[in-house]
## 1
Amino acid sequence: DREACARAGRMYRGPASRHRMTKNLLEIPVGELLGGRKRNIAHAMRLGAFLLVVPLPMFSDLPPVFLWWGIAICLASMLPGYLWAIGRAPGIPIFPIFAITHLWAFGLPVLTAHPVIMNYPPENMQLAGATVVGFLFLSTIVWLAVAKRPAEAHSIRVIDTRAGAGLVWIPLVASVAYNFLTLADRADILGEFNSIIRAGILGLNTLAVFILCLRWGNGQLSPRARPILALLLILQLATDAASLLLIGSMTTFLIALVAYTAGKGRVPYITATSVVLIFVFLHVGKSEMRERYWHNDTTVVLEPQELPGWFGEWIADSLDASTSNMGDELIGRQKDEAQPLWWRSSTMQLLLLAQDLTPSQLPFLDGETYEIIPQLVVPRIFNPNKLRTHEGTYRLNIHYGLQRYEDTFTTTIGWGLLNEAFANFGLKGVAGLAVVLGLFYGWVTKFSAPGSLLSLRALFAILVLSYAFQTEFSAGVYVSALFQSTAALVALSFVIMRREWLPGKRAQEEEA
């Protein structure tokens, strides 16, 4: 009752309804994320490991070195997720998500015989495979050592459902509006504040999607609000994908899926499968669209009313590519225009390139791409001569002869954190990165463990999770984007959050 809540230092939220079966979101601890559904993840990973180790070697015609190192990378990528699923690691699976990205960035491209990778001799593959596996094992050990014991906290900041119910919609609406401005090439109307607004919107949009989908799954979103949220999510995914870069929309969908599942207690398999199939289908025609619009040195400008026609053209290309490949296979002719999704996201060939050329032909960068990070963190409004956000990536590509400086204004070849570390300091850099990321992801997991899924700590962890999914970010992009998004989250917390004591902590402090 009200008096009992006052004595415990907690807010009274009114009498409980007999018909309400949902659990208050402020009472769902971080440790209960996905609940018993983690057992299904563990079963799926056991099955995946079995298929990799037993049937695959029997039917694969890959050279043994490529085959077994590809399998080792995939198993090392899956290990943190399996440990989390069986309860060996607590909290939000930030590091397991980061580790699993190495499955399609390094492992699957090897097992599916990526043509660039197969051009390297076996000894190069052996070194690259050992580098990735060693990186994953070392970072896993450090992450487990730090994350196992939750941090102590007497009080936490949580969302005030009365003050934040309406404000939490603003970042999602603002993100959709900003995407429309960007597609129409009108983001310059924001002037010098453009970079600050973009960073704030992108970070807070992730949190808005998580909070709203969590409430939807938990049954705390009104029936009138659900179709509005569904429409905004569709617009968010569509405007992100219209840039012909699917990673942003895929990340948003992953966050929405995890949040809804955490609130509902079960996975919406039909919806999840349908959206995944849509992404796969669009990927088939993506190369044709990029060939048509990216290689003409012109900026693609799309007004809102042009989006249906744009996606109609994309769907037609995907249908043509699908039927053409099917026909070619029936008559025994191979067509290589539509590449597997993991070939597009592969960064293994860049690691092989760096290890082949460095230091025998090219020197290590010795921290050149890390030295610029402090400049990237400062908003452009305070530093008009600020370097471009992807400056570190551009320097890597120029150093290894993949691009000229003028090429960087139209295209970007992402390297990822592991490859960047090797290009700077070799194997010592990879080992150092493993320790740093293991410590950081372990600390974030530990820091977010106390309290509920709607606490400031947990939302910061979700923010970190959204960046851990990015396989091509350099350290400069990662740090600057996370810093600016975190600053926006902290500022918003003073508006929509309140302090709440954890059970028993206030009484213990008063006794002391």
Note: Strands lie at 155-159, 497-501.
## 2
Amino acid sequence: HQWVSPGFMGWPQETVYITTADGVKIHAWWTPGRNDETVVVCFHGYLANRSEFVPLLARWGSTGSSFLFIDHRGHGRSGGAKVTLGRNEAHDAAAALAWVREQRPHAKVIALGGSMGAVAAIRAVAENPALADALVLDAPYRTLHEASQNWWGFLAGGGLGSLMRPATPLSGLLLGFDPKSVDMEADLRSIQSRSPKPVFLTYGEVDPIVPLASRQAVREAAGDQVTYVEFPGATHGAGRLQDPALFVGGVMDFLRRHGLLSDRPD
């Protein structure tokens, strides 16, 4: 999927650069739709790039929605700032969402992210709830501290994961901040207490980075307007790839229910 572009799929493709509040130059593809009613801003996961969500256009583009696909800092063609697994990537998300608000001031803006990108979207909207009208979140971790503890097991299996857990306190030194401060449960509660928004939340049933208790906590924090989907047998971030029809169809139905998606092609 790293090499899929909107233009390759037959959709409009414009290259844009957006500068974040902390001075990072973010590269993105802008795919303007045939109406100005809905814009979807897509935030990829760690080690991915702007191409990750481009295949959405195959099922979703016919509604006339517009899309912005960004490269987070340290990824793709964006500036080479330190990757912080969602903390500072929130600046990328905020800048992209603000850019879309300027381009389509009357549109409904949907922040869509996977894993690190979902975390970036949550943090950006927690800081400024006016940036988005809804959140579509695939596999956001509960806290960065927990995710760093579980990461080795996800990569190399339980044995090596257990061996490497003593090294996780070093992650704060490497990142330059306390991983416990990146808390999606707290950020979602903040959003829903200040400016309640519909949330579409998905996880894999056997996600080793976000265990069951944490998935339940994030789901509860997402509030009364949450739509929750769990993909049977799927690991971290894999459910939407295993069953794209369920993911995209579910998201579009969710947006229609909340009056955030038109099916008018023009």
Note: Strands lie at 14-19, 25-31, 38-43, 66-70, 108-114, 134-138, 199-204, 226-231.
